[in-house]
Amino acid sequence: MISATQYVLVALALAGIGYYLVCITSTAGFLLDRKKRRTEVAEFSPPVTILKPVRGVDPGAYENFRSHCLQDYPDYELIFGVGDANDAAIPLIERLRQEFPQRRIQLVICTQVRGTNRKVSNLMQMLAESQHPFVVINDGDIRVGRDYLRRVMAPFSSANVGMVTCLYHGIAAPTLGSRLEALGISTDFIAGVLTARQLEGKLRFALGSTLALRKTSLAAIGGLEPLVDYLADDYELGRRIAGAGFEVALSEETVETCVPAYSFAEFYAHQLRWARSTRDSRRWGYAGLALTFGLPWSLFAVLAAHGAPWSWKLLLVALVTRVLMAIVVGGVVLRDRQLTRDLILLPLRDLIALSVWIASFFGHKVSWRGSSFILENGKLRPVA
User: For the chain, what is the domain count?
Assistant: First the structure.
């Protein structure tokens, strides 16, 4: 006889399998849209400023910076911003200037602290130095292809587009924590983005991998200043742009982020910070994530059923659909070359994700760039 616990676990597992199938169909819809857009790309290449707030030296930092100097684009400038005149990234920026004397590369030392989110504080000071009507913001760990600017700017040919953002995948370091982080981006986080886009009919948020904006749409939401205490500044920026009536477009371009060589503890702390940030940003949607962990719930169903034959069949269905979802999103959409190697880690990654989701409801403390904060309604408050 099936117990009440088994019934609950089966229901959760079936809900998770259903979610995997929705992710697959949402991804298929995105692929069809992307194919259509590639045949209709407008030649729209206005002057643009790339803003890159940096702190310290991320993995592959120079190659990341350098990729932005190799753009096949007629007119753009590159502004780096640091919060410390002795930042370790400054010699790399000077080296970049020497290698690319034809590029307009500026360094801004951001001496003012205008809020708890130092990145936004620095961006406000960098933005004041920009010359062009469009800006593209991305972090120091982002690496891009030569057509990045052309593809990101193309959607702005439509006057209603106020913002463009990009999908991304991680380049993992050899550590287990780094590999789990990159695997989660390619097989879970981006799947959730594409599913939210499909279910909501449009994108109502943005990803920090690329935040491309018209200055006029930024001005319409009061600029960057309202975001200076928010942890999820990228999400808030996209939400406010969409709320002001502008379209947030998802570019066909996919960029790469170089994932640090996280220890397991560092990986878990980063996931917990991310989870608590998402919890505060999309409360009801975040609570609903309980219905997305099909593989872990089916594993627990096997244990609760003491290995009954029906429970193994449920686990097999969950595993097959989960792997298919990972391949469609990570392999087909993102072209993540590390996916095949790390696919065996998927059950472990999903079990950890479930534990992070549960832990995220117990507390408001987060660690960010070596400091501790209390997260309240999406805003950061330093721990006294």
Answer: 1
